[in-house]
Amino acid sequence: MSNIFQRLARLVRHRWAERHLRKALPPATLKELELLIAKSELGHTGQVRICVEAGLPWSYIWRDATARQRALSQFAKLHVWDTEHNNGALIYLLLADHAIEIVADRALDRTMNAEQWQTLISDMQSAFQGGHFSVGLVSALERVNRQLQAHFPRKSAANTQRNLSDAPVVQRHLPGRNR
């Protein structure tokens, strides 16, 4: 358990990260990711979401929550778990902590072992460290989509209803800053 000064320092770090969010993921990149998700979901029955937060909400910082805990919360809040074949995936980024989490529903999770998921995350981290957020996210999306297409192919073009938005969720926790 951290003390009050550690929590305040973490809060400042998380709010400071808000300033860098638009630079890391400009509107054109977000649109590119949205179109890629929409196109890929025509070939499989899964649902893929991206959620990016500059920093955690105060309540998460106060209770020393991890990026993984927040990713699991967002997985539920964004209804990624609510797929017919239990094959949703959430790619979650927490910029302030330089954290990447991938939460896969149980059917999709069984198609890859822990080492494969970790390799995907490590490759994203390498791209991000070089400032290539778009490249890292596109590569991760392509790999997740290949898994979904291999194990959960869409059998018919007639049933292409997607119940979740394809747009990446970008959250800021300063008043009036969400987009």
Automatic annotation (TrEMBL):
Q: Which residues form the TPM domain?
A: 24-146
UniProt-annotated stretches for the region Disordered: 155-179
Which superkingdom does the taxonomy of this entry point to? Bacteria
What Pfam families does this protein map onto?
TPM_phosphatase (PF04536)
Recorded protein name is TPM domain-containing protein
Q: Which organism is it from?
A: Comamonas testosteroni (strain DSM 14576 / KF-1) (Pseudomonas testosteroni)
